[in-house]
Amino acid sequence: MSDRDAHFTDYATAKTPWLRKVAFLLCQDWHRADDLVQTTLTRLYVHWHRVTRVESIDGYARTILVNAFLAEQRTVWWKRVSLKGESADAAMPDLDVAASVDLRAALAALPPRQRASIVLRYYCDLSVDETAAALHCAPGTVKSQTSRGLETMRRALDPHSVNS
Amino acid sequence: MQFDADSLSSALGAIAEQDAPPSGVDADRARVDGRRTLRRRRTAAGLGGTGAVALVAALALSAGHVFGGAPGTGAAATRQVVRTADWDPLVAPGTFGWLPANAPNVNYLIAPGPGQGSQALGKGSEVSDGTVGHDPAMIWLSVLDAGQSPAPQSGDTLIAAPKVNNRPAFWEVDPAQRNPDRGRAGVLYFQSPSGRWAEINAYYLGTDPVAQTLLHVAKSAHIGDTAVPLPVRISGLPADVIAPVAQLTRPTTIKGAAWEVDLSFSMGAENDSVQVQVLPATATPGANSEIDQHCKISNGLLICVSTMNGRAPWYVAGGFDGLLRDITSLGMDPAHWTTDVVTVR
User: Fold this and answer.
1) What is the ipTM of this complex?
2) Looking at CA atoms only, how far is residue B301 from chain A in angstroms?
3) Which residue, among B109, B118, B117, B112, has the nearest Cα to B62 in the 3D structure?
């Protein structure tokens, strides 16, 4: 194995769990998440020569992942897949099952760019500028997308709390 | 659940930490697939010509890079193209003729994506406040690269469909079902008179038979690069600027805006791009109040320009104000819109 391949394999192996989590939050389906990460790693390999010039390999990989997610919303191939039957997701966390289900549903209901903005800002802890770079949009767009997403989630989740 | 934005980070973390099934990600397969892609790109670069250009463009797109020009212009991804005539950043691969009543809105988009140059989309209405209240009908029309044949997604298969305008066509179906109707959805490939294959990919259709609807859409569609008229004329950009993103969206998720045009121009570094957004001036004031944009209202249109870093790119003469001055509003009437959108200086 060449040095290039060895370095890539080391990186891919180490970062796959993290990339899967980000992908899962974006698409809400572990199998789709795996497909997104597989696509991300393939593209990362193709452009591995560029990683020496990027400030952060993680940021570069995350950008590829988010772009792959947003692009597939346009190609909508995943909806073909979903038409064949939904996959069974794994068990929910111990913390608060109902709250987690509600949050997942609220997140899943967001348009893709709003969802990506929320995930990058609040899970990946990126700044507005970093999120804008990942989404290839203006910082102001990130602010508005995040604001709209949070408001939509708030509307979706608050009524439930009244009844619970 | 009480929604608390402050605790959102930890809540998302908890979701992401939930027990996941074993990973299906394979780094070795990524290396093999990546090497194959590199080989194909080198081969394509050596071949030259439109097919090779299309392949290179697709690869550049898949990595989120900018690419040169619109489909059909012969622009290469790896080099700048110097324009000699006014041009349209939004060139659709085809246009719809008939569309079902629940998908009356025609959208066009060129945007980064794996192997997709441009698409036309017939779309139903959706809630206009940014939320998704129901699933709007969607009928995507795209054209395969020259020489490319229909290829079903993994697990699917192709079966013969009735000919479309006396040319062959195929349904993409689940092999177990072999039914073009995939639950208000369907995929139809059909060959155009030029020999290029087109794909219609539809979801959330109405109650009419899916096969009949898709065949009707296919028979009335025009396949071939079609410049989409836009409501602005832009001068002052260099002749070798490129447009990686161009969209005409309707309806929009912006209140008071029946349509929206988004254009992105770029030169050099992938982050060195400038976005141009055009909306009806009736768009709700404050909808973009948090966006750090430079805007003007002219002839009934709200025209805004922005960049990721808030600074005008080096290739925009006169900065944001200069660019805004160089954008001419053609008004709300589509009859006055133009395909000579970018004026070569």
Assistant:
1) 0.79
2) 19
3) B112
